[in-house]
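Lecture notes, part 5. Sequence design as translation. It can be helpful to think of inverse folding as translation between two languages: the language of shapes and the language of residues. The source text, in structure tokens, appears below.
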């Protein structure tokens, strides 16, 4: 099997790591870089638990090869907070109890941030459509959608 050396920017920091030809970006983030926030829910791109931003685009990291990340910018859930200060979405998810077991939460947060970065005033339909690629087996989605809408409102008012 071929081995690669990848240099990328992850959460604003330049990183360099080895990977195998068939290794996913998700596995490299978790096993090579110790960024365990992104979760493997399905390994087929159907659940969104492994969602990250790759060059500003929301992707399932289980579907991207680590070797493809060379020279690119990656944002993970670990990059959302500013030091110890949680991102407004993270605070709102906690305040409204928009999580239960937590497996899907990082993917929802990354996807929700991508939406709000793109559209600071989404409708409920927009939020539900944008988050349709993220599955949760615990919450029923209502608290998640409410958290995103309230965060958008708070951020617009700030």
């Amino acid at each position: 099997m071929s081995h690669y050396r990848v240099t990328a920017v992850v959460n604003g920091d330049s990183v360099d790591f080895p990977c195998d030809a068939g290794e996913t970006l998700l596995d490299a983030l978790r096993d090579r870089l110790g960024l365990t926030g992104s979760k493997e829910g399905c390994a087929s791109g159907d659940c969104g638990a492994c969602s990250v931003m790759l060059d500003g685009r929301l992707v399932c990291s289980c579907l991207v090869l680590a070797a493809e990340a060379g020279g690119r910018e990656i944002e993970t859930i670990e990059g959302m907070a500013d030091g110890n200060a949680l991102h407004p979405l993270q605070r709102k998810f906690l305040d409204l109890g928009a999580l239960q077991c937590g497996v899907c939460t990082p993917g929802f947060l990354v996807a929700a941030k991508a939406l709000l970065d793109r559209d600071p005033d989404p409708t409920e339909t927009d939020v539900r459509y944008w988050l349709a690629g993220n599955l949760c087996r615990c919450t029923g989605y209502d608290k998640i959608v409410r958290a995103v809408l309230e965060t958008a409102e708070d951020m617009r008012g700030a």
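The translated text above is only one of many valid answers, since several sequences can fold into similar shapes. Residues 3-79 form a domain with the Ubiquitin-like (UB roll) fold (CATH 3.10.20.30).
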